[in-house]
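Q: I'm writing up a methods section and want to include an example of the input and output format. Could you take the sequence below and give the corresponding predicted structure tokens, formatted cleanly so I can copy it straight into the document?
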Amino acid sequence: MKTTSKIIKDNRREYDKLIKSLKVLKSGHVNIGVLEKDGTKEHKSPMGGGDATIAEIATWNEFGTKKIPERPFMRGAADENKEAIGKIKENLYAEVKSGSKTSKQALQSLGFKFKEMVRSRIMRSMSWATPSADSTVAGKASRGNPSPNRPLIDTGLLLRSIDYEVKG
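A: Here is the clean output for your methods example:
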């Protein structure tokens, strides 16, 4: 009597891997902005008045103070890219679900893309931000800043400090 054997493929392992990845995607998150690694660095204020951390400078510009007008580079980037971010998230979720990306890779992609959106908004600050005070422009010009009228950019430290990290 002839025996036949059948190979039965158990996809449970792949299924379990997918479920785990989707759970990580649900519980994981991305921090974007001036992160602790850069934010706590002291920055000698080119305008005088002592040292400040880059996180303090970012906060003062994002929300404003009595002397510094509000220049929302983080919130503004989120607002102006709301639809694009939604589509990016949908696409990344589909990639995780299909197995072409891990949840960590998806969160890293999201972080990188939003970081670039924030940096782009800072670079375009002349088109949307409150202009710098005359004294600020003069100070930037005296230090050789090639674009002293551009708000949010003096030494470039804020721009370089925008980053992301994946948690979870």
